[in-house]
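Input/output pair, single chain:
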Amino acid sequence: MNSNFNRAMLSLARDLRGMTQTELAERSQLTQGTISKYQAGSSTPSDEDIEKLAEALGFPVSFLYRTGKRHGTLDGHIFHRKKTKASSADVRRIDGHLELFGMQTGDLLHELELEFPYHIPQIDVDEYGSAELVAEAVRSHWRIPRGPIDNLTERLEAAGCFVFMFDFKTDDIDENVQWVAPNPPIILANNYFPGDRLRFSLAHALGHLVMHQDEIPHRKREDEANEFASAFLMPAEDIREYLIPVTLEHLFEIKPYWKVSVASMIMRAHQIGEISDSRKQSLFQMMSRAKWRKSEPDPIPREKPQLIYDLIRTYREVLSYKDKDLAAKLTVFPTEFRQLYYPDAPILKII
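Output:
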C-alpha cells in the first residue's frame, strides 16, 4: 500500500474532469465502492490502482501524490459571483480549476521571488462602517487617482494577485476567487462576458479578498462585495457629476470613459441618491425592452492578464525550462500544460 497517496488530489482530479465515482470506476476498471473508500481515506490504493486511476483521469501519477488539501466556501477560502441556478457540477469543476491554478502558481513561485509595489490589505468592514468606505481605503492604499480605473487587471497584478480569464462553459458563473497562503490570491473570470462585466467581477473578487478572507460565511458577503465593486470602480464623488442627466443616451456616452456597464451606472446612480426607485425601475424596463440587459451595445474590450505569462516566460527564457519540464513541475502532461499556459494563447479554455 502507498501511504504517499493523497486522497484530496483524487477528489480534485475528478472535479476537474467532471467525473462521478461511477464514471471513474468504469474507466479505471475498479469498483465504485473501492474508489469511494480511497477518496474517503478508509483504504489506501496499491501502486497498480493508483496507475489505473491516474490513467483514467488523464493525469500523471505524480498528481495523485501532490501534498496539500482542498479548500472550499465553507472555510472562507473560495468565493463566487454566480447565479443561484448554477449547477453543482459546474461549480465543482470551476472551483477545481481555481484550486489547480492556485497550487500550480505556488509551484512556479517556489523557485522565484517576486516583488510587488502594492499588496491586498485585510480590512474589517464592520470597523470601517461600510464596504463603500473600504473601497475608498483600498484606492487610497494603491494610490489610484480620482476617476475611472484604466486597467483593473494591471492593478490587481501589481498587488501580487494572479488573474486567469477563460471560458467557463456556462454563463451562470462570473468569477471565483481563492487565497490560501503561502500561495498568492487567484482570480478566475469567465471571458464569456464583455469587458465591463469582467471588470465588475474582478472588483467583486477583490472585495472578497479584502473583506472576507478566512471569515465565517454569512449572508451579507455578496452584498458587501457588490457594494465594494461599485464604489471601487465608481467612487461617489468622482462619478456624480458625470451621471447627470441619468438617461440611457447619456450613460452610453460616458460608458467608454468609466469602463463599466450602463446597468452598473444605473445602480450606482440609485445608490448615491441621484435617481429614485421608480426612475431606476423605468431605466431597467427600457433596457429590457431594447434587449440590453444581457448584452449592451458598445462593449468594453476585455483586459488581458500578463503576470502568469511573464512568470512562464521567465522559466523558459531565464531558467531554460522546456514545456515537458514545466509540465512535470506542475504535475500535468505537456499537452495539458500547453492548453492551460501557452503564452501565445492568453485567453484560456477549461479542458
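The chain has a mean pLDDT of 92. Residues 24 and 56 are 7 Å apart (CA to CA).
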